[in-house]
């Protein structure tokens, strides 16, 4: 099962209609195709459609394929989309320049349909591999919940709130969906933490040894996911697991990172995690939930100092929807994460938006 979408989408970029027609004939039976006939339209199409792969010509007027690739890799919304150059420029120097700009492959014209199909399939299989890895890690998380009762529905609520924040902050459907998938892995490292610490009925900070072991769950999580991974999704998962307790002022852990050194997806997940933890009445170290107004006050205190102002502003703008999420998934009524994870990015976005709509109708 492909967790990203039903069928891969490929953006074909070439200024020659005949070349686009040929690529269409080769690929149309297997993939969803989008088209662009210039560098400018390619950049716009990449953001609009968020394809799984881009096949890019080099020799185009006004903006050549090299410049298109450079700009794609500069934009955080499109940096992770694989690019294959399909061009008549076949010299070694041409290929080296393409790879230096971030392309993953290079196919020379005239194209050989079986070779092109094989190259495309090879790179798209990497996405399916990531899907299998994520499914395995989520299974591991579900097993971990057996010894950590406080996480009942916590990971789902964090994932949904993270998705809401990401969309409000301008993430496209696919990037928000990927963050939704990996957000539940933020605490996967708790698998390596002793039960007596996870369920400790007090302030762990007052016991330095226990607090140090709890902090290490970020490193355990990074080790479980793997530092050597290269795919965009698994890099995002690694960043979320390792860095979700870092703070802008350097007071977080495990690395004491500051400012822009902290991956933004980790900060979004961190805020979602904080909100849900404060509103959760079942935490063993606290009697009951923190009142909503107090939660808002604490978030406002950290705005701009420990947490990015634009994320906190997004929280306040979405507060009613976030509270609807908290009511929709209480701890005593566990909802399987795969009720959501099997959806396409579009359907997931629609389902999550409906949570707030239903809550308003029944209020």
UniProtKB/TrEMBL annotation:
List 4-aspartylphosphate occurrences by residue.
57
Could you mention a single GO BP entry for this protein?
phosphorelay signal transduction system
Q: Which PROSITE patterns match?
A: HD_GYP, RESPONSE_REGULATORY
Is Ion transport included in the keywords of this UniProt record? Answer: no
Q: Which residues form the HD-GYP domain?
A: 129-331
Q: Which residues belong to any copy of the Response regulatory domain?
A: 9-124
Q: Could you confirm whether the keyword Cytoplasm appears in this record?
A: no
Q: Which UniProt keywords apply?
A: Phosphoprotein
Record-linked PANTHER family: CYCLIC DI-GMP PHOSPHODIESTERASE TM_0186-RELATED, TWO-COMPONENT RESPONSE REGULATOR-RELATED
Protein name, entry field: Related to two-component system response regulator (Hybrid family)
**Which organism is this protein's natural source?**
Desulfotalea psychrophila (strain LSv54 / DSM 12343)
Q: What taxonomic lineage is listed for the species of origin?
A: Bacteria, Pseudomonadati, Thermodesulfobacteriota, Desulfobulbia, Desulfobulbales
